Amino acid sequence: MALIVDVFPARQDNYGYLVHDEATGRTAAIDAPEAKAIRDALTRRGWTLSDIFITHHHIDHVEAIPELKSAFGARVVGPRAEADKIEGLDELVGDGDVVTLGETTFEVMDAPGHTLGHIVFYDRDGGHLFSADALFSLGVGRMFEGKPGPMWEGVKRLRDLPDETLVYCGHEYTQSNARFALSVDPDNVALQQRAADVDALRAEGKPTIPFKLGEDKRANPFLRADAPELAAYYGLEGKEPSEVFAAIRKGKDNF
C-alpha cells in the first residue's frame, strides 16, 4: 500500500501537508501551520488526523498544535533539540531515529541552520522528503540560528539522497529563489529551464511543490556551493565550500 500526500496552501505562503498511510488509514500533518487549513484538507479527503510531525519551533510551523491535539488526540512528534521551545510534544526524535505512520517508515535527519534543532522526515521507500525550511525549491532557509559549516553539511546530506526523491518544503518561495539563483549562476542551463518552468506554473496559479531533488541538485546554488563557478562568482576560488555557502546565503539575504 502507498503513502498518499495531500498538498494545500496555509497562512500566507506556507504549504501544509497531510500524509496518509493507505494500509492503516493513519494520517499525519507535517507541521501545524494553520488549524483551519488542515481541518479543511482532512474534511476534503475524508481522513482523520492521528499524528503531527513537527520539524522546528517557528510559530508558522507549530501554531495549530494545541487545537489539533485537543480535537483529534493526535500524537505529536518533534525535534528533541527543540523540546523546550515547542508545547505539546509527545515523542522526541533526532538524527537517526525512525518514526512510523502505520506501515510507512520515516527516517529522521538533522538539518541545522535555519534553527539549531531543525529536523526533516524522509520516507525512503516512497521517495518523499519533507524538508520544511531546511531546503526550499532553488533555495534554503535563512540561517537564523546556525553556522555555515554545519548547515552546509546538513544540506550535503540531503543532496546525497536519490535524484528521484520528491521534496515537500515549507513555503512557496521558488520564483523569488529563481531570480536570485540566476543572478549568481546566470550560465546554468538547467537553472534557466527550471526558472522558465516555475514562471509557467505560477502564471497558472499552480504550486511548484513537490520538486524532484535531482533537478534541484543541478539548479539550486545552495546545493552547488562546491561548484567552481560559484566560488569564482564570489572571488572565493580555492576556499572551503562552506565559505561559498555562507557567501551565497548572505547574498540571498541582501537580494
TrEMBL record:
Pfam families recorded: HAGH_C, Lactamase_B
Domain Metallo-beta-lactamase: 13-171
Cofactor note (record): Binds 2 Zn(2+) ions per subunit.
UniProt binding sites for Zn(2+) 2: D60, H61, D133, H171
Cofactor: Zn(2+)
The protein's annotated pathway: Secondary metabolite metabolism; methylglyoxal degradation; (R)-lactate from methylglyoxal: step 2/2
Sorted UniProt keywords: Hydrolase, Metal-binding, Zinc
UniProt family annotation: Belongs to the metallo-beta-lactamase superfamily. Glyoxalase II family.
Record protein name field: Hydroxyacylglutathione hydrolase
